[in-house]
Design a protein that fits this description.
heterodimer, A: alpha+beta, Uridine Diphospho-n-acetylenolpyruvylglucosamine Reductase, domain 2, Enolase-like, domain 1, 4-stranded antiparallel sheet, 12 helices, 14 strands, B: alpha+beta, Ubiquitin-like (UB roll), DNA polymerase, domain 1, 2 domains, 5-stranded mixed sheet, 6 helices, globular
Chain lengths: 288, 158
């Protein structure tokens, strides 16, 4: 198997334009190398992008842009994310151990498109768009909800590279949280993962609600009905309970080695209610 | 199968990486260089027995392509002893009984080395957090954490 280093973006795009689906893009390797070992993938060439310059930055310009080569440690330790995009930083800190976080990237976590991908719910609640570029067709931007189209299936064309993610601005009186249920506190694949982003008006009424979950369906998803149920409320117990019921309706959990579907259905509304309470109180803490 | 040759520094020695795209750094270290101190446990990034330092960062060498290590600085357990002496971390693990069967020990030594370089006086939570990716099935972890605590001023207080 050929190993092709990409010194810069142009080299990577040239390789992908030439090789198409015979190539497998590789950054930190933490998912790809396992899949190679298990025989789940058999590319002719690995296109190594870990050292492509300019894809490991966090920039703010109206929206927040995260380079695809940011590692989980980069995300977990970023002051901007820890301040205003806590769900992203926190979710990154819960992916594997230090060894995985040191080299595993946000681009890899998204493109691997695991039903349990921890970074997907936080990116979904921040309205992320996926930034793609190809040698022949240039740049395009795809909403993340349209990019992850199935279990381990994404809408990337074979000659395209994901260069980053563009997130909605996080304004004042906005807060976000990520909650993960696992069997232990570290090194877990999520049994349930849940991100919430809430914004409140001057009176403390929710005027923007976003909810996304992983590990309860083949693809992480936004729970629009539950979001609608929180709008115009102050997230009291009854209203949150109604939203939880709507969230459950949209979930299609399965039994697997980590947990039963029944357990997932029991735990989902509970972490939802605690996450809403925490998120609401943080969003409303800006009220004077 | 193509093979490519490129060089990197392993424990201060310049070596030529031989392998194809699917060759892991772990296999290269053990089979090509004969550095058998780095262990293969799970081979899928769960156990940390294969931890080495790449440019100072702890990485599971079973998941890292050997050829991706071109030009990087690799440190393995074989490079940890200070001449004929154990490193302070190795000595602390001996002193606290943090070693039983020893299979996981090289990985723990590498992760703790990275931690103590970055944060010479970690508290207990930082130690436990840093070690999340290393499994030990003998000691129950307490003695390993105690070894790191014994080297840290902050750890002793908590």
């Amino acid at each position: 198997m050929e190993f092709r280093r990409s010194g810069d973006l142009d080299e990577a795009l040239t390789s992908l334009a030439e090789l198409g689906d015979k190539a497998q893009v590789l950054a930190g390797g933490t998912d790809v190398m396992i899949q190679l070992e298990r025989g789940e993938i058999s590319p002719e060439t690995l296109v190594h992008i870990e050292r492509v310059e300019g894809m490991r930055d966090i920039t703010e310009n109206g929206r927040l842009t995260l380079g695809a080569l940011l590692t989980h440690i980069d995300l977990a330790q970023s002051p901007v994310l820890c301040d205003r995009y806590q769900s992203v930083a926190h979710a990154a800190s819960l992916v594997g151990g230090w060894q995985t976080q040191a080299v595993g990237t946000i681009g890899g976590n998204v493109c691997n498109a695991s039903p349990a991908a921890d970074l997907l719910p936080p990116l979904l609640v921040h309205g992320a768009n996926v930034l793609l570029v190809s040698k022949d067709r240039g740049e395009r931007e795809v909403p993340l909800v349209d990019f992850v189209v199935g279990r381990r299936t994404i809408a990337r064309e074979p000659d395209e590279l994901v260069t980053g993610f563009s997130l909605d601005n996080s304004e004042s009186r906005t807060a976000d949280v990520y909650k993960k249920v696992g069997r232990r506190g570290a090194m877990e694949v999520a049994i349930v993962g849940l991100a919430i982003r809430l914004s409140v008006d001057q009176a403390g009424t929710i005027n923007d609600a976003r909810i996304a979950v992983c590990s309860v369906a083949p693809v992480p998803f936004r729970a629009q009905a539950a979001e609608q149920a929180l709008l115009g409320t102050k997230a009291n117990g009854k209203e949150t309970g109604s939203a939880a019921a709507l969230l459950l309706e949209q979930a299609e959990p399965i039994d697997d080695v980590r947990a039963t579907a029944r357990y997932r259905r029991m735990v989902l509304p509970r972490i939802f209610e605690s996450a809403v309470a925490e998120c609401y109180s943080r969003a409303a803490s800006d009220l004077s | 199968m193509n093979s490519a040759n490129t060089s990197t520094l392993v424990n201060g020695r310049s070596v030529t990486i031989i392998g194809d795209g699917a060759t892991t750094l772990l296999d290269f270290l053990r089979d090509s260089l004969g550095l058998r101190g780095t262990k293969e446990g799970c081979n899928e990034g769960e156990c940390g027995a294969c931890t080495v330092l790449i440019d100072g960062r702890p990485v599971d060498s079973c998941l890292y392509p050997a050829l991706a290590a071109e030009g990087r600085i690799i440190e393995t357990i074989e490079g940890m002893d200070e001449g004929s002496h154990l490193s302070s971390i190795q000595a602390a693990l001996v002193a606290t009984g943090g070693i039983q069967c020893g299979f996981c020990t090289p990985g723990f030594v590498m992760t703790l080395t990275a931690l103590l370089r970055k944060q010479p006086n970690p508290n207990r939570n930082e130690i436990v957090g840093a070690l999340a990716g290393n499994l030990c099935r003998c000691t129950g972890y307490s003695q390993i954490v105690e070894a790191a605590v014994s080297l840290s001023e902050l750890g002793k207080e908590s």
